[in-house]
Amino acid sequence: MSTKHDQRLSPPGAAPQASSLGGRGQEASPISEPVIELEGVSVCLGGRTILQEVTFTINPGEFIAVLGPNGAGKSTLLKVLLGLIRPSAGTVRLFGQAPRRGNRLIGYAPQHRTLEGALSLRARDLVGFGLDGHRWGPGWFPAGGRRRQAIIEAALAEVDALALADMPVAHLSGGEQQRLLIAQALLSQPRLLLLDEPLSNLDLSHEQEIIALIARLCRTHGMTVLLVSHDVNPLLPVIDRVLYLARGHAAIGKPEQVITSATLSALYGAPVEVVEALGRLFVVGVDI
Amino acid sequence: MISLLSYPFIQNAFLAGTCIAIVAAVTGYFLLLRGLTFAGHALPNIGFAGAAGAVLLGLDPLFGLLAFTIGAAIGIGLLGRNLRERDLAIGILMTFALALGLLFLSLYSGYAERVYSILFGTILGISRLDVLLSFGVSLLILVSILLLFRPLLFSSYDPEVAEARGVPVRLLAVAFLVLVALTIAIAVQIVGALLVFTLLVGPAATAGRLALRPGAVILLAIALGLLYTWLGILLAVLSGTIPVSFFIAFLSFIVYLPVRLIAPRWQRRPQQPGLLPAAGAGLSQQASAR
């Protein structure tokens, strides 16, 4: 599809490390039940095979970067987990159960685009959708109106955005809106956070802030995180494993195991070189 | 003025106009939010074809209006979210309906007054029965919107997350457009098919630029809708010959214009010192990270 796949990767520690992070988290306990189990999962959409016999397991508290070229099925995978897309083959288990819509154990922030008509929506309104936006009725006379606001403000504080509470969403920058979407996703007190490209359209310092924030949620709340990204560089200091998708296939493991010429060549089905240059790793040589 | 209000037909106009102004403002708010203003323009025109067809068959135009607007609303609701494709499909549907309306008109040899009133409204010829009908349908629409309020708002702003949270997004889209179709069916009798759009979009568009939260926008839109309708009826009665729809559209325009011109004041971001400072360094790094 694209001409050259030039995903840049750097070895752990090469990217500037956010100060608030304590490096890699501890390994998830092997006894506890996996959060996500995929076995032989295939997804066909419109006659095209997006995922083909994908199998992997993700344990509680893991921070996973989901990588791969455009169209590799990263967003599709998240939608399978959310119960929005049914796989054509294989089994998916989340917390031991089949995926279903409206699962409160999952917090989800989709790929961000400007919210339409967001001028007349305040940050706290947007975040509040995560609490009761799915409930019927107007919700104008809740017994705990103050309690509702307290919960929303706690979520805003969690993402360091309490000062933005009464700002119109349209006035906020990409990084600030991303915080709000994460706060919204946190409101159902999820145990699994699915974030689709939360780092796109962010400048470097905001990127670091968002990564630090997500890593903190993962470590202090024991939340499992799947973060879709184009660039693994800034994530290397904080992630446990990477899930690399290409041509419908998946490879999962520690970054240093997956992001190698051998593994990626097998995944792409074409010769791929992982080259280290300028203190970063580059994936080069694929014409897809 | 007080004596004017004692005329039953003027009372009827005010009562029906009040119901319609309220529901049009509320559904109009969601139309704007969902990027469906073009559908709001197309539905009355499609309804006109239905009304013309009903007149041709010797039926009450309201039945034709309802059949066509609800049918089209369900179709548009099922079209999905791709804005460009959806608006193209709506445009083609609308021109087809207009062509049908033209055909029905040319086949109809009777008195054109009834068709004219569908196009431009007949607020001063409204019966008590029409008022009761408007009231009943308005109540139905408002109660429905209240029941759907939170998921409708959520899915208007962020359909993807709403869907993931278990909101039946597509069903809501269809249900909402059916409510719009009902609004249009009762509003057509007052402002006419050509100017329903004014009552649907005018108040909400102005309110959206003034108020900062959804509830406030809706209340302000209702207030503006009532203002336009009441003043419009009053001016039409005083003028004697100029139709109500002209005044409503005129008022809507002259209020929107200054608001639109002043609105940049609201759209600019207030200064927030010390909050999430932007990156000073790292321009070159950012360039390499992409």
Automatic annotation (TrEMBL), chain A:
<dbReference type="InterPro" id="IPR017871">
    <property type="entry name" value="ABC_transporter-like_CS"/>
</dbReference>
<keyword id="KW-0813">Transport</keyword>
<protein>
    <submittedName>
        <fullName>ABC transporter ATP-binding protein</fullName>
    </submittedName>
</protein>
<feature type="domain" description="ABC transporter">
    <location>
        <begin position="36"/>
        <end position="272"/>
    </location>
</feature>
<dbReference type="Pfam" id="PF00005">
    <property type="entry name" value="ABC_tran"/>
</dbReference>
<keyword id="KW-0547">Nucleotide-binding</keyword>
<keyword id="KW-0067">ATP-binding</keyword>
<feature type="region of interest" description="Disordered">
    <location>
        <begin position="1"/>
        <end position="29"/>
    </location>
</feature>
<dbReference type="InterPro" id="IPR003593">
    <property type="entry name" value="AAA+_ATPase"/>
</dbReference>
<dbReference type="GO" id="GO:0016887">
    <property type="term" value="F:ATP hydrolysis activity"/>
</dbReference>
<dbReference type="InterPro" id="IPR050153">
    <property type="entry name" value="Metal_Ion_Import_ABC"/>
</dbReference>
<dbReference type="InterPro" id="IPR003439">
    <property type="entry name" value="ABC_transporter-like_ATP-bd"/>
</dbReference>
<dbReference type="InterPro" id="IPR027417">
    <property type="entry name" value="P-loop_NTPase"/>
</dbReference>
<dbReference type="GO" id="GO:0005524">
    <property type="term" value="F:ATP binding"/>
</dbReference>
TrEMBL record, chain B:
<keyword id="KW-0813">Transport</keyword>
<feature type="transmembrane region" description="Helical">
    <location>
        <begin position="129"/>
        <end position="149"/>
    </location>
</feature>
<feature type="transmembrane region" description="Helical">
    <location>
        <begin position="88"/>
        <end position="108"/>
    </location>
</feature>
<comment type="similarity">
    <text>Belongs to the ABC-3 integral membrane protein family.</text>
</comment>
<keyword id="KW-0812">Transmembrane</keyword>
<dbReference type="InterPro" id="IPR001626">
    <property type="entry name" value="ABC_TroCD"/>
</dbReference>
<keyword id="KW-0472">Membrane</keyword>
<dbReference type="GO" id="GO:0010043">
    <property type="term" value="P:response to zinc ion"/>
</dbReference>
<feature type="transmembrane region" description="Helical">
    <location>
        <begin position="214"/>
        <end position="238"/>
    </location>
</feature>
<keyword id="KW-1133">Transmembrane helix</keyword>
<dbReference type="InterPro" id="IPR037294">
    <property type="entry name" value="ABC_BtuC-like"/>
</dbReference>
<dbReference type="GO" id="GO:0055085">
    <property type="term" value="P:transmembrane transport"/>
</dbReference>
<feature type="transmembrane region" description="Helical">
    <location>
        <begin position="62"/>
        <end position="82"/>
    </location>
</feature>
<dbReference type="Pfam" id="PF00950">
    <property type="entry name" value="ABC-3"/>
</dbReference>
<feature type="transmembrane region" description="Helical">
    <location>
        <begin position="244"/>
        <end position="263"/>
    </location>
</feature>
<protein>
    <submittedName>
        <fullName>ABC transporter permease</fullName>
    </submittedName>
</protein>
<feature type="transmembrane region" description="Helical">
    <location>
        <begin position="12"/>
        <end position="32"/>
    </location>
</feature>
<feature type="transmembrane region" description="Helical">
    <location>
        <begin position="169"/>
        <end position="202"/>
    </location>
</feature>
<dbReference type="GO" id="GO:0043190">
    <property type="term" value="C:ATP-binding cassette (ABC) transporter complex"/>
</dbReference>
